[in-house]
């Protein structure tokens, strides 16, 4: 592999490795070329709208976590043909949200994790802890579970986070590793380091991500989707909510694990 350093990223040939669980993330993890992420981890696909619909055919997708997984929900809602949001009479940003596509039998859920949570007003009965939601999922070949869990925990001690992640890990052990696509989405989403608030810094976020990665290292079938470099490597300015280009590449990377080439 020939590698040339230019600016913030390394430019090199990609990989033909099939996207699956158990892969490690190198440094660098990939590069952008004309706003398309070229991964060194596995063969990520640039699916068009109809291909995304075919990939999600007969799938029930559970997106659990914070507003960054809601961005995934909104991207799929806009780009999967025929996918329509159901009116659950819930806040647009607070959820829970659901979209369906009848022809290909696609169902996509988004639900925020439990407290502590900094969202707009929503019913307390709609606030479920991630581990409780996973306990209610029948893990089979139709289930795709994605969760992220860090952004709203940056004001709390690391020990509190370890306790919460341990409960999620235990729930994941109940899902079938041979049939359910189970993805842990790493969090970064471009927070600037600040000396005034160590809890919102990239340094603290790295510690939370390390806890998550190590907690799920020995859980068979779990995919740890590392998007840190995908957000830090792009030319867009720092933002806790990544821009549409980054979100599109994140979702297509996610779908490359659901439907590996």
UniProtKB/TrEMBL annotation:
<dbReference type="Pfam" id="PF24536">
    <property type="entry name" value="NXPE4_C"/>
</dbReference>
<dbReference type="InterPro" id="IPR057106">
    <property type="entry name" value="NXPE4_C"/>
</dbReference>
<feature type="domain" description="NXPE C-terminal">
    <location>
        <begin position="37"/>
        <end position="259"/>
    </location>
</feature>
<protein>
    <recommendedName>
        <fullName>NXPE C-terminal domain-containing protein</fullName>
    </recommendedName>
</protein>
